[in-house]
Every structure is written in structure tokens, then in C-alpha cells.
Amino acid sequence: MVRKRVAILISGRGSNMAALIEAAKDTAYPAEIVLVFTNRPGAEGIKRAEAAGISTSMMSDANRSREDFERVIDDALAAYDIDIVCLAGYMRLLTPGFVTRWQNRMLNIHPALLPAFKGLDTHARALAAGVKVHGATVHFVVPEMDSGPIVVQGAVPVLDDDTAETLAARVLAVEHRIYPLALRLAAEGRVRVVDGRCIIDGARAPPGSFVVPDL
Ligand code: GRF
Fold first, then answer.
1. Rounded to the nearest 5°, which phi and psi values hold at 118?
2. Cut 0.85: pTM above it
3. Which one of the listed residues 110, 123, 139, 176 is annotated catalytic?
4. Where would you tag: which of 39, 42, 114, 187 has the fewest CB atoms within 10 A of its CB?
5. C-alpha 1 – ligand 1 centre gap (Å)
6. Rg (CA), the chain
7. 207: Cα within 13 Å, side-chain hemisphere
8. CA–CA distances in Å: residue 174 to residues 136, 170, 197
9. Does pLDDT of 215 surpass 80?
10. Is 134 known to be catalytic?
């Protein structure tokens, strides 16, 4: 098996990056993490990537146009011969040109069940809306923010005494499970995009899977 070469783009703490690195330690995993790039040189996640022995590249995007900055990213991705890009808490919008070049080869994780709650503060907004189920989504990136074909979603119940913080923690645990799963499926070539939807070869519903709370 030829493992896909993956770059992860981060701007912050990097816990999803760490989950991907952990999954890829298994040599049977179909992707290897060869580069972590950040637009925030102080990002906590960079230390974690270095500790895991992954090559890192950093460049502040302050005072740089989007196009100039993306040339820097392009060069890094080309230098490492990258097949798949994973955005993991990467807090800068990418140009349509860049996104189109990586069409169906660039994943993002969003802390809500898309298409609900695009954008920021998803947990507070889910609480305010009174939804009973919340979760996270891994999707292919398209030019429109937090849109694009959905690869995997994971759901959690919302409890009456949740705060944005407790809900975020419950969702984060799901993020750390679904991102390695989605990358595995994409790296195995099991994800086909048809009419804006992902068709996953061999996917079945797990038996008896409910996300309602214990009542
Ligand atoms: C995660 O909640 C992710 O869904 C969102 O940004 C956060 C990044 O967290 N896109 P981390 O840096 O992976 O810990």
C-alpha cells in the first residue's frame, strides 16, 4: 500500500492534528502526516507536531495578501509532494483558486452538524437554538465557507445543564474520532463525490446507534 502524503494546516492548539498524527502512527493507516503548516508561528499545535517528529513549516500571514500567502503554502505543499490537505482549526479563509486546485483533496473539520451552525461560536449558538443533538462534520472544502460535500459526521446529545464549554468538550471527543476516520476513507479512495454528496464505498449504519440521552 502506498500511503497518501498529508499536510495539516493549523492556527491553534492542534488537538485534531494530534488525533490525525496518532492515527497515522499505525503503518496500516493509509495516510502519513508529513507536514504541519501554520499561519500563526506561536501556535501551540506546532510544539506538539515537533514533539511527534513531524516536519513543520510556519509563516505569519500578517500584512500579506491572501494570494501571496497562498504561494508560500503552495511551495510548502509542493516541496513535500502532498496528496491530501487537512485543515484543522486553520483560521484563515482560502481563495477560490487555491480551494479549486485542491478540490476533493482538502478536508476540514467543523464543530457542528453542517449545514447547521456554520461559522464561529457554534456551541453557544446550538445551545441558544435549543437543539437536542449537536456534533461535528468533516467535509471536503469548497470556496464557500463551511460548505462542501460531507464525508463523516458524529453526533452528541445536548444536555439541559450544558454550557458552551461542556458541549464543546463532548463534541471535541467526537471530532478526534471522526477526523481520522474521514481521512482514512479519503486516503483509501473510498469517497466519491456525486452531485455534491459523498458516496462512501461499503458504509453501513452501525446497529442500534442512537444519540438520545438516557431517560
Ligand atoms: C475544532 O473545534 C475544529 O472543529 C475547529 O477548530 C477547532 C480546532 O481545535 N475547526 P484544535 O486546534 O484541533 O484543537
1. -70, 160
2. yes
3. 110
4. 42
5. 30
6. 17
7. 0
8. 7, 7, 22
9. no
10. no
Distance CA 122, CA 130 (A): 12
Burial track 166-183 (b if 16+ CB lie within 10 A, e otherwise): ebbebbbebbbebbbebb
How many whole angstroms from its chain centre is CA 165? Answer: 20
Residue-wise pLDDT for 157-212, tens only, equals: 999 999 999 999 999 999 999 999 999 999 999 999 999 999 999 988 887 777 67
Name the residue among 136, 88, 130 with its Cα closest to residue 112: 136
CA distance 46 to 60: 13
Amino acid occupying residue 148: G
CB atoms within 10 A of CB 194: 8
Residues 138/191, Cβ–Cβ less than 8 Å: no
Residue 159 is predicted with a pLDDT of 96
Enter the C-alpha cell of residue 142.
469548497
